[in-house]
Write a structure and sequence with these properties.
The chain has 150 residues and is of the alpha/beta class. It has two domains: 1-33, no CATH class; 39-142, no CATH class. The chain has helices at 6-29, 136-145; strands at 39-45, 56-59, 62-73, 78-85, 96-101, 108-113, 126-127, 130-131. Strand 2 and strand 3 (62-73) form a beta hairpin. The longest helix has 24 residues, at 6-29. Residues 38-115 form the Mce/MlaD domain. This is Phospholipid/cholesterol/gamma-HCH transport system substrate-binding protein. Pfam families: MlaD.
Length: 150
């Protein structure tokens, strides 16, 4: 029988607590801990570059939901996307959904551009007004090549 020192038990407990805290943080930041709260909306994009399951959905820079599903529609060749919006957030039914970038080196996120309608999307509705991701590489190539629309 070996006797453990108090310091060894405390260090082991601290390591275990740190591992649990990291696991909780990782599951929340990747969207794995999505609960039943909120409602889902659907949208179809020409390009969904940089967006995947767990990507933030933001309104006015504030996270209001996450992307919960991404599939390729074989008939339209568009990315069909499902995202969950938090309960209590009402999105007008003439709103646009845009893929935005956090900056030159930042990642992409889904941005809700609210409309002015008095009516709101219902759970499961399809958002028709969408704008896909803009490739910064293709914009840079056009700029360098001089295809500025002249």
């Amino acid at each position: 029988m070996s006797s453990y020192k108090v310091s060894e038990v405390l260090v082991g407990g601290a390591v275990l607590a740190g591992a649990i805290a990291f696991g909780v943080y990782a599951s929340q930041s990747t969207g794995l801990s999505q609960g039943g709260s909120g409602y889902e909306l659907n949208a179809s994009f020409r390009s969904l570059e940089g967006v995947g399951v767990g990507t933030d959905v933001r309104l006015a820079g504030v996270k209001i939901g996450t992307v919960t599903g991404v599939t390729l529609n074989p008939e339209t060749y568009r990315a069909d996307t499902t995202f969950a919006i938090s309960d209590g957030i009402l999105v007008p039914d003439d709103s646009a959904i845009v893929i935005s970038s956090e900056g030159l080196l930042g990642g992409n996120f889904v941005e809700v551009m609210p409309g002015g309608s008095l009516f709101n999307f219902e759970p499961g509705d399809q958002v028709e007004d969408t704008q896909g991701a803009v490739s910064l590489i293709s914009l840079l190539v056009k700029f360098v090549a001089g295809d500025g629309g002249e």
